[in-house]
Structures are given as C-alpha cells and as structure tokens.
C-alpha cells in the first residue's frame, strides 16, 4: 500500500526518481493521466508487492525498473512484465504465471501480486 | 569527508524525507523501525543523499553491506530464519546488534529493520573513502 501524497512528494522533490524507478511505458501511461500520481503510486505498490512475492525485497540486484506494469488497451487489465536479473531470478523460482491487481483512491494505492509456481 | 559531516547529511535527508524533527534521530535509531520509515521513504532518503554528495547510494549497496557475498540459502535456514552463518555475517556488518537475541530466532527477511542511521552513515563514508583513494 502506498500513499499517493507521499509518492507525489518523492517525485517532485527528487528529479531522478521517475527515471530510476519507472520504465518509459509506465511514465508515459501515468503522465498522460489526469491524476498521474495515483497511477505512479499504484505502479510503485505493484513493484513493491512483486519483490515481496519473490522474497527479495528491494535490493539484491532486483531493480524496481525491471518490473513493468502495463494495461490492456481495451479492457485496462493490468499486466506485469519482468526483465533482466529479475526475470532470471523469478524463473529460477519456478514461476509460470503472474497476475496483479491494482486499486487506488485519492489517498492510497494498493496492489496484489499472485505468482503460480510449477 | 568526516563521518560527522556524513551523519549530518544523512540526518538532513531523514528529516526532509520522513518529516521528523532532528532531535528524534540518533545514530542508534533503526530507520525502518524506530524512525518509522517505509521502503519508499528509504528510497527517498537515498535519492536525497546521492544528490548531496554526488555519489549514488542504492538499496543494492545496503543489502550487499548487510549480507555480504553470502547466498540467500546460506544466510537463512529453510524456515526463513537467520542461520548461524547469517548471524556471524551480521556481527560484522551490523556490529551494534544483540547477537544472542537473534539466535532465539529471527526472520531473515526482517534484517533490514535492524539497519540504523549509523550503519547508513558508515556505508556512505566507506563509499566516499573508496572514491577519494
């Protein structure tokens, strides 16, 4: 769960934060929304939920930018893609399916990640 | 840069990121425990410090400092508790901890909650000293 006002403060006060944490796709999706910070907060919550689900937390070579949240063009259903070391590590756990759900209000964003293992 | 100067930079970043008063922070304060920071706050702190000292400090640096080169499967038992090897590593990386207490059983995934302001200060001081050699 992530506070929308907190992520707004972090983004506004740290100019490098967006580029370090969010992929270009996530940036363009969120920045094109009227309430962009709600979308950034939801994406951050999803990344955090993902690293908890694989048991590493942030660090240990697992970078938040290597976890990308996108949405289906038509249905809006969120989808998670992973890259680089995160992909290798997740594969080594035997994960064959990844599902996420995102919700947000004015104040809070929450994400759940479900990984299915072989 | 002297350790005291680094500590002041760390303290300022904590004040700005978490919204604490300076007198609420001491070297012994655990960042995620005593100071009530969340992982987003800790990232915020690292971004602020990196900007101040022009050296990038990352979560990878912190986890590497704490766990060293010990693989996860040796650092923790199959039950997810700190192993003997893990505890020996923490004696070196987080020298302030009460090792005997950890031997009673401590979840390895909670290890970051033991990380203090002084530990962060030492990590940054070390990174700066490497750069100036």
TrEMBL record, chain B:
Keywords: Phosphopantetheine, Phosphoprotein
Entry keyword Protein biosynthesis: no
InterPro entries documented for this protein: ACP-like_sf, PP-bd_ACP, Ppantetheine_attach_site
Xref: Pfam families: PP-binding
Domain Carrier per the UniProt entry, residue ranges: 4-82
Signal peptide as annotated in the record: none
Species name: Paenibacillus terricola
Protein name, per record: Acyl carrier protein
């Amino acid at each position: 769960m992530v506070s929308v006002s907190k992520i707004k403060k972090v983004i506004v006060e740290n100019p490098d934060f967006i580029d370090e944490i969010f992929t270009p796709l996530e940036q363009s999706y969120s920045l094109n929304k009227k309430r962009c910070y709600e979308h950034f907060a939801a994406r951050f919550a999803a990344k955090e939920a993902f690293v908890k689900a694989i048991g590493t937390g942030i660090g240990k070579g697992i970078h938040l930018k290597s976890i990308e949240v996108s949405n289906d063009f038509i249905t809006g259903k969120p989808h998670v893609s992973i890259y680089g070391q995160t992909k290798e590590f997740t594969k080594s756990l035997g994960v064959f399916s990844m599902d996420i759900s995102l919700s947000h209000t004015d104040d809070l964003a929450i994400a759940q990640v479900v990984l299915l293992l072989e | 840069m002297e350790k005291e100067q680094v500590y002041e930079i760390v303290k300022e970043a904590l004040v700005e990121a978490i919204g604490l008063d300076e007198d609420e922070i001491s070297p012994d304060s655990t960042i995620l425990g005593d100071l009530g920071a969340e992982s987003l706050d800790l990232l915020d702190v690292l971004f602020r410090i990196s900007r101040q000292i022009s050296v990038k400090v990352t979560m990878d640096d912190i986890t590497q400092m704490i766990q060293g080169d010990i693989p996860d499967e040796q650092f923790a038992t199959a039950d997810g508790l700190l192993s003997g090897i893990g505890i020996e590593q923490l004696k070196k990386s987080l020298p302030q901890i009460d090792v005997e207490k950890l031997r009673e059983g401590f979840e390895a995934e909670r290890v970051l909650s033991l990380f203090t302001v002084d530990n962060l200060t030492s990590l940054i001081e070390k990174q700066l000293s490497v750069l100036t050699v």
